[in-house]
Amino acid sequence: MTDTAPITHPSWLTSGDFADADEPLRLFAAWFDDAKRAEPVDPDAMALSTVDGDGLPNVRMVLLKGFDERGFVFYTNQASQKGQELAARAAAGAVFHWKSLKRQVRLRGPVVEVAGAEADAYFATRARLSQIGAWASKQSAPLESRLAFEKSVALATARYAVGTVPRPPFWVGYRIVPLIMEFWQDRPYRLHDRVEFRRTAPDSPWIKTRLYP
Fold first, then answer.
1. What's the chain's Rg over C-alpha atoms?
2. Does residue 52 register a pLDDT over 90?
3. Residue in 37, 60, 175, 190 annotated catalytic
4. Helices 128-136 and 146-159, interaxial angle, to 10°?
5. Among 29, 72, 73, 185, which has the highest number of CB atoms less than 10 A from its own CB?
6. Residue 206's pLDDT is what?
C-alpha cells in the first residue's frame, strides 16, 4: 500500500493531550505524528467502510492522503466498488489502528468529492508508475488474466511516454467530513480510555464525552 507521495496536514494542527483535548483534529494530528514515528509500515493506513446497494457494509484498507479542518482525504477510481457505493450513499466510516502505540481512532460522516484542482495537485506528486497504473487499472472490474493487466500498463506507458501524465477524469479524491470521532487508548486489564467527540453539522461545535470501555 505504500505510496511515495507525502501526506499533508496544516501547520496549525499541533500536539494535544488526550485527557484535556477539547478539539479532535488537533488530538488526531498529535496521535498521527506519534504513529509516523512508531509504526514501521503505513501509519496512514485506514479501514474505510461504505455500504452497498443491499445495505451490507463493505470494508477495505486505503491510505489517508491529507487532513485538515475540512476532513480526511483519500483517492480512488470513481468506477471502483467504493466509488459506486459512495455515489449511491455519500457517507463513510474509517478506523485507524496503530498497534505499536495501542491506539485507535474511529470517525464517521458524510463524504464529498474534493475539488479537481486539489486532486490534480496530489496526482502530480505520485510516482510516474503509480500515475500510469491509475490509467491502466479498471479498478474492481473482473480481470481475465494478469497478462491482460500488464498489457494495459504497457499501452498506458506508451501513450504517456513523453511529458507529464495527466490525472484520469475518473480518478478522484473523497473527503470524509467527520461528525463523530472516537479516540481509544489501551489500558491494562481492559480498563481502556475512550473519548468521543460529536457535532450535529460540520460548522457546529464539538461535544466531548467519555465512554465506558
1. 19
2. yes
3. 190
4. 120
5. 72
6. 96
